[in-house]
C-alpha cells in the first residue's frame, strides 16, 4: 500500500509563499505521474500541478507562473513551491500519485489571508 504524506501548509498573508512537501512510502520514480490537487470549501477538487515520470509538468492556468512543482527522487518527495499567494488559493492541498491505481494523501490546509 502506498502512503503519501503532505506537509508544509499553514496560514500566510496574500503575496507570501509556502512550500508543500509530499513524502511517498516508495520510490516516486515508480509512478507514472505525481501531482498536487486542491479543494476549496464548497468546490470540487481541482488540478494544481502535475509532473510526469519523464519530468514534464502541467499547471492549472490560475497558478501558472506562481507555483512550481519539483521532486527529489533520493528523498521520495515531491514539492509544490507556491509564491505570490492569493486568498483564492485557500484550500486543502492533496498529493496524488498514479501507477495503474490512484493514490491520495490526506491533505494539508493552506489559508491565505487578505
Helices and strands, with pairings:
Blueprint: E1 4-7, E2 10-13, E3 18-24, E4 33-39, E5 46-52, E6 57-59, E7 67-72, E8 77-82, E9 91-99, E10 101-104, E11 108-113
Parallel strand pairs: 2-11
Antiparallel strand pairs: 1-3, 3-8, 4-5, 4-9, 5-6, 7-8, 9-10, 9-11
Descriptive overview:
This protein is mainly β and 114 residues long. It is 0% helix and 55% strand. The chain is built from no helices and eleven strands. The strands form two sheets. Strands 2, 4, 5, 6, 9, 10 and 11 form a seven-stranded mixed beta sheet that branches. It is globular, with a radius of gyration of 13 Å. 30% of the residues are buried. The mean pLDDT is 97.
Structural class: mainly beta
Alpha carbon gyration radius: 13 Å
The main sheet comes to: 7 strands, mixed
β-strand percent reads: over 45%
Task: Work out the helix count.
Answer: 0
Q: What does the average pLDDT come to?
A: 97
Give the ordered list of helices and strands. EEEEEEEEEEE
Helix content, binned percent? under 10%
Q: Quick one: overall form?
A: globular
- Low-confidence segments, given as residue ranges, are none
What is the strand tally?
11
Cα(first) to Cα(last) distance is 40 Å
Amino acid at each position: 500500500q502506498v502512503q503519501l504524506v503532505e506537509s508544509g501548509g499553514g496560514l500566510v498573508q496574500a503575496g507570501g509563499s509556502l512550500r508543500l512537501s509530499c513524502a511517498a512510502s516508495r520510490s516516486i520514480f515508480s509512478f507514472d505521474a505525481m501531482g498536487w490537487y486542491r479543494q476549496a470549501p464548497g468546490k470540487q477538487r481541482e488540478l494544481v500541478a502535475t509532473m510526469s515520470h519523464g519530468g514534464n509538468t502541467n499547471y492549472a492556468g490560475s497558478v501558472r507562473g506562481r507555483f512550481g512543482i519539483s521532486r527529489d527522487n533520493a528523498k521520495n518527495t515531491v514539492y509544490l513551491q507556491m509564491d505570490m499567494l492569493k486568498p483564492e488559493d485557500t484550500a486543502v492541498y492533496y498529493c496524488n500519485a498514479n501507477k495503474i491505481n490512484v493514490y491520495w494523501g490526506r491533505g494539508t490546509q493552506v489559508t491565505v489571508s487578505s
